[in-house]
Amino acid sequence: MSNVPEIFGSLVFSESVMKERLPKAIFKAYKACVNEGAPLTKDIANVMANAMKDWAIEKGATHFTHWFQPMTGITAEKHDSFISPTDDGSVIMEFSGKELIQGEPDASSFPSGGIRATFEARGYTAWDPTSYAFIKDGCLCIPTAFCAYTGEALDKKTPLLRSMRALSNSAVKVLKLFGIETKRVVTTVGPEQEYFLVDKKLWEQRKDLVYCGRTLFGAKTPRGQELDDHYFGVIKQRVLAYMHDLNDEMWKLGVLAKTEHNEVAPAQHELAPIFSTTNVAADHNQLMMEFMKRVAAKHGMYCLLHEKPFAGVNGSGKHNNWSMSTLEGKNLLDPSKDPYHNLQFLVFLVCVLKAVDDHQDMLRVSVASAGNDHRLGANEAPPAIISAFLGTELTAILEAIADGHEFEEGPQAYLNLVKEYLPEIEIDNTDRNRTSPFAFTGNKFEFRALGSSFSISGPNIVLNTIMAEALDDAYDYLAGKENLAEAVYAYVKETYNAHKRIVFNGNGYTDEWVEEAKKRGLLNLKSAAEAIPYFSNQKNLDLFEKYGVFMPHVTKARTEIELEKYCTTLRIEVNTMLEMFNKDIMPAFTLYCKELLSNIKDKKALGISANYESKLVEKISALGDQAYEASLALDKVSEEAKLVEDLAAQAMFYRNNVIPAMDALRKPVDDAEILMGSKYLPYPTYGELLFGINE
Ligand code: ADP
Ligand code: MG
Which of 273, 370, 413, 660 has its Cβ near the most Cβ atoms within 10 Å? Predict the structure, then answer.
């Protein structure tokens, strides 16, 4: 067992390391830059770079990299060594302030949605001093933002930082009205990460898992998650060893990995960190996903981060626990003991409701992907309809205000399970709701619709920006009002009444909710293909422009990137399906049938009945015929898809025509799999994959 306080952050150029290694004045300047946005001069950067290099070399690093997050959703790095030649033919280890502050990777091979032509290759990376540098694989990694020569953001971090700035500006103004002085408001996120672990040897044998991260064929196992025995169940030794290793790696990198447990599906697990500032949380979540894969490889396993690796059992999501706090650490979504009289809280709360209601479309867009389409609305994840859960107490408070009467708080509730034997416990004033996409959970909102493989940046860019807009609305209403309390209650009343349709405390998995949501006029964008084009609606172009997050042409470019990603993902899935079918599945059918047929022949020669073989061969042949026809149809329709020029139309074509054709191929193959002898199957079954880790 490792000594946690000793290893924690040992690979991070953290504030305590800086304090130790930087001259006082430089450290102060760095803090002013991080907390107040004061400029960081070249001289300061030079000193910092030198200290960083010395520290990194002591830790065994030889290289540095600007670590950034292009639109691919994963991270990118290009390593440069610290060496610099000297006159006498030897080398010294150098790292300048300029190298720390900016880099120039080639931008042409990253997605840009048409902003960059390949011949316009220049791109810049710029240091994000609010996220600590760290060492990975002997390389000093400097978290950076990535933009084009012309200034457009080509990454996920730049707009995230811009959205945080927008929210901060708006929130600081509103807080002033309540006498709360702060220089900055930061948004905080704790992302809970779900994942699957499978045996690496089995994973290798499945082209669908290797190419697509999910299974495209596979009959149901005799046993899935029906017994509800995996959630929070005892963790297997091999998985536990993995989790310990993963924690160690995370702790060394200063990631506050905290809670780990088994999830609902067999082979499914979760790791949650303690929350941090959003951009740091985004960096850390990327590192967490990367190390989940690496550490798995060391343990002979493969970590699947896809939203739906297996049909028929739950998929994986990511819960984005989100709040806002002042620089001094005051959580602005903390209701305190007496929320009814907590004016600041009430304003922030209704602003969240207004933001979520006004921008359901953008929240939905921010969680849209081909992978996540398998989860949203599938009774294991929140519905595709965006709504907010408040719980009984807060709803009652807002209803009271809307109705114009005083809210009477009930007494603190206690639970005593076995009087005199067990201590009394305080219970929360509201239960949880697992079915809501956006649920208030005590002092934060939990946006539960993210897919497991997502970068959390996209959804948080949206959350921060729409909240900034709602806070501006509150400011405009409240500023200059003589009686602030009166104005707040009036504002809360008006805003809640205007947006209460977004509040839903019931079961989001039911058909009744779908009906009810329709009556309320809420959006129900069932697939990514339907959702993504909303990104470029005029309202959203204006929103992101107003808050300095994206210029309209960048919003449009990102819409294209997302549509393209959707179509490409499906195209790869189709290609993989057809390859598996033609190269592995059909030959397996043929082989099994051939064996059966030769048996029939032998038996018949001896005058023995060959009834079951005949029936079986007939069944498998029929399924084979059906599958073969379906494969031709799939091939044809996917060729047609490529010809649809408009990307939004192409995405809809995939959704409406290609996906059903994929399903039509899968069905007979899965039906045949059940009938086939094990040794004829071309790949490991669901049962082997899901229950393959036994020790
Ligand atoms: P659970 O939902 O399982 O009870 P917690 O309430 O402890 O768990 O929180 C789940 C996640 O929410 C954790 O990652 C936690 O750090 C994070 N979290 C807690 N408070 C905040 C906050 N103010 N802002 C953002 N995330 C938070
Ligand atoms: Mg959760």
Answer: 370
